[in-house]
Structure formats: C-alpha cells, structure tokens
Amino acid sequence: MSVSLQRWGSFHVGGREVRVAGEAVREVLYTPGSAPARLDPNGTYLVGGMYAQFMLPEPRRGAVPLMLWHGGGLTGACWETTPDGREGWQHFFLRQGWEVVVGDAVERGRAGWTRIPEETGGAPVVGPLENPWLRFRIGPGTPQEGRVFPGQQFPSDPESWRAFIRQNVPRFTTTDEMILAAYGALLDRVGPSAVVAHSQGGFFGWRAAQEWPDKVRALVLVEPASVGLAEKVAALRGVPVLMIFGDYIAEDARWPTIRGHGVAFADAVRAAGGSVDVMDLPARGIRGNSHMIMMDRNSDEVAALVQDWLASKGLWR
Amino acid sequence: MSVSLQRWGSFHVGGREVRVAGEAVREVLYTPGSAPARLDPNGTYLVGGMYAQFMLPEPRRGAVPLMLWHGGGLTGACWETTPDGREGWQHFFLRQGWEVVVGDAVERGRAGWTRIPEETGGAPVVGPLENPWLRFRIGPGTPQEGRVFPGQQFPSDPESWRAFIRQNVPRFTTTDEMILAAYGALLDRVGPSAVVAHSQGGFFGWRAAQEWPDKVRALVLVEPASVGLAEKVAALRGVPVLMIFGDYIAEDARWPTIRGHGVAFADAVRAAGGSVDVMDLPARGIRGNSHMIMMDRNSDEVAALVQDWLASKGLWR
C-alpha cells in the first residue's frame, strides 16, 4: 500500500570544531586519471556531528515526530528493512502516520567519521560475522552451524544472516559523550519527539531524556543495553517510558545482568515519581524474540504494541 | 507538493568474504553499565559491500530506475538536500516519476567500513573544512574569508558551508576495485538503470558502463573526475552519455586537465561509434556553477536539463 509523503530529506546536526596544526602538506591523487591535488591537513575539522533522515506522511497522526535510534555497531539502516527483506519499523510507523526521523549516530553511517584515533580516543571494535550470533541470542554455536534457539523469530538462514551482517559497522567504545551531545542537537533541531531506541541507543535514550526531559515526550527502549544516571532519576518524572525485552534471556550469559540493571533502574525512576512499563514479550505469550526485535519475523506484531502504548500516552490521534 | 510512494527501503549488496585467524580473544564492554562481552576477532568478515536506498513513486514515469552515485568524500546524502536546505536531486527525479536509487559506495556512509588498513590497503584521506573551498571552485582563499568567484551559485554562507562539510566523509584512494565491483553487484540486483554520477562517481560510471553495458541504459556524468579504459571504448557503443561541466574551469589549477581528459575520452568513444554529449553550462548561458552542481542554487535548473536529455533517449514517458 502506497504512502503519501508531505516532506522528506535529511540533515546533519551537532559536533564541534577541532583545530589541527603542524602537519605536513602533501599531494593526493584522489582518482586515477584525474589531476593531483594539494592537501593541507591543517585547519578546522567538524567532529562529532550526526545524520538524520526524516519522512513526513500525510495524513499525519503522530502528535510529535517519532525518532528511531539504532544500537551499537549499526546505523539507521536497521530500521529500513529486515534481513529477510520485509519492511522495517520505519515503514510501520510511517504507515501509522508518524513523522519518522531515523538517525545515524556519531562516527557511523552517513554521520561520517573522523581522524582516528585523534578525535575518537581509540580504535573501533570490529567483529566477524560469527560474533553476534550468540550475543544477540540467535542460537548456540555459529551461524555456519545454523542451530537456533527453539521458536527463534530472527530470520537466521544464511542469506538473511549475511544481509544482517552487511548492515554492521565498526563501533567505538570511546565516543559516548559525543554521541549524547549530538542526540541533544538532534532533539533541539527536531523539537519534542517520541524516541524509540534499541540496545546501545537505549543508553542514549535514558541519558538524553535525563538531560533534555522537555524534548522527549515518550521513550521506548527496545532491549536497552544500559541505564541512565542514578542521581538524575527525578528528571524522568514527566517522561513515560516503555522497556521491551525479548526471549531467551534467562539462559544468556549477559542479558540477565543487563535486564536486571534495567528493571532496577525502572524501579528507581518509579520511586522518584516516574512511569516505566516493563514489557517482557514471553510473559505476554510472544515467544522467540532475539535481541534484534525490530528485525524478527514478528517485528510488526511488536511494533503494534509500541504503537498502542504511544497512543495510550496521548501521542497519536 | 506531496509525493506518493509505492515502495521504499534499502539493502546492502556486494562484497566478499575475508577470513581472519590468529588474533587474540579479548573482552569488550560495549556500553557503560552493560555487561562485558567476549570478542573473538577471528572468523569471517564481509568486506566491500555497499548500501542503497530506493524510493518508487507512483505514477512511475521513468522506464528504468535512476541511480544517483555520489562523489569522493561524500555519501548518498549529497543528493538528499542542499547545504542551504533545499530539496536535492533525489527529490527532483522522484517528483518526475523516476524510481530513484541512492547508493553509499564501499567504505562510506551506511555501507559501513572495515578493518583499516588490512582490508582497505591504506589509510583514508581526511581534510579540514578549508580544503574543498578552492578545489570545488567556490572561491579563492578560505571559507572563513568568504570571497567567492563572481556569480557563484554554490550556497557559500558560513552556515551552509558547515552543513556541506558535515556531509563529508574520509575517503580512501585504495579501494577503487572494491567500489567498482560493488556497483556491479548493485546494477545486477536493481537491473538496467540510468546512472547519474558525480565527480569520483563518474569514474565508476564510465567503468561500470564498460564492464556491464547492458545494465547501464544511460550515463549522466556530472563533472566526472576521470575517464574509462581506453581499450574498452567500443563497449560504450550502446550507452548514451551526457557529460556536464560547470563554471570557472579555465582559471582552475586542475579542472582544465580533468575536463580535457573527459572531452578527449568522449571523442574516443564517439570515434568507436558511441554517443557522448558534452554540456558546458556556461556555453548555454548558465553561469556560476561550482563542482557541486547538484547543490548549487540553480540545481533544479540543471536537473531539468538532465531530465530533458534522459527523456530524449526514450527513458521517460
């Protein structure tokens, strides 16, 4: 079914200036058969900006824009399609009438990247295609062996796995403050929004809502990798939060800890007067979800739960 | 004016497998407050893929998809907006009824990037915001001084310049073969297309049309940085080509050479039975265009010339 767009496009926001001096001028032949160019690396660099792409459908039914913040090692592309080629959550929410804003966080995707390690404080982490199989709770062993947990919803056939891995990008563990600042600049530019954040994005979702609570009208955390600042829980009083967790957590090496942190933080936010709903999908009879819920075969079913929750908060009409 | 989309989304294509062995397993704390994860860097890497985003409007009037291939140091975002926030060529051609496919070439944007320098053969070139001012024929001196060539069409105010620079990404000079192979995979997946390529993209446009002439129905080269292979000019016999050049070329240090190579190659293609139209915008009374024609204030005027040319080749109805 077609969708009518009133506006669409992209922009970059955030970042700061860095001055570089004392480096040698050199000559670069950018393209074979071109002409050499003089490159003076000294000057002004813009570091720590991010990219965002927006689509505004008509009729518009979301009361505010809905932002999709990706997880670590990924870009905004993770919301645009699933590894088996179905429509992503970007499509789902656009079809519901939300203005959808998909971001590429600092040093990833179209945000570009910068001088490494001078501006990043370290080298990025790069892993092989075998790595996320167990970590994202697809199955034991390796993708080549192909065994999955019972009832697995992630499209784990070899072709889909490769399609997923192609979306993966290296990630830094040293750029969190830059990323948070850029999300602040994004919220500032777009204005008050509902934020849907996955995994590492959940860390920035919590932190951004604590820093700029007037800009985050609702926060949906899909398997958030971490929590906010304990000393700032009171800032979240006016921000309704939904946390969603998938299946196979009890048996995982790390996820009981990570989920435990999340649930404890939710308790602390509630104790400070805030509102956090924790949705364990298996407890609702929805089984088989990996860490990559927005890519799982039942991705639209879970998106519908998010949609209902956002509507219940008065953000959709 | 709104646009109706029949389909939209993205995918990754291309690349090859690389096996890594003998590296040390380590522990990584990806996100503060998370739980440490074991990272075994040994295994299989997918290297050299690219990203593409497609939008299919209705009614559809383009006979084939229209691909937009960015230049060096840029990503597909360069087609999505202009530095002063107007609509880009993506919008223009979508509004004309073309299915528009915007790519991010290997090691840039959402294509992701890989282990450096093991898979890239070298480190990328990164330059300061001062660098493209003269090289892209905006003006003499620096952007901070703000002097522009007479009649300059590029939006060169400080805010626009920063918006443009934020789009810039580091670029390799060592990955050309990977990029060409990925464009081949893209053409293979999407099928025969009209290709509009800018600057470094023009190099890949020529080369791709020579390698896969049945997949390139027309080639529009916007200030191509280089040419194709002299020994394969005959392969271009069935591919109509349009080359477009902007203003201020005669006074530039490099562009008389680069344009000269292009015009000489066009002659060679014609001598082999091909068809190449060379459009110097100033000769048509269109003045003030920088190297970044799709971002200049008269970007839609030039896009309309491209549109008319594509229609004259029977590719639009």
UniProtKB/TrEMBL annotation, chains A, B:
InterPro entries: AB_hydrolase_1, AB_hydrolase_fold, Carboxylesterase_BioH. Residues 172-224 form the AB hydrolase-1 domain. Pfam families: Abhydrolase_1. Gene3D superfamilies: alpha/beta hydrolase (3.40.50.1820). Keywords: Hydrolase. The keyword Kinase does not apply. CDD domains: Esterase_713_like-1. SUPFAM superfamilies: alpha/beta-Hydrolases. One of its GO terms (molecular function) is hydrolase activity. PANTHER family: HYDROLASE ALPHA/BETA FOLD FAMILY, PIMELOYL-[ACYL-CARRIER PROTEIN] METHYL ESTER ESTERASE. This is Alpha/beta fold hydrolase. The lineage of its organism: Bacteria, Pseudomonadati, Pseudomonadota, Alphaproteobacteria, Acetobacterales.
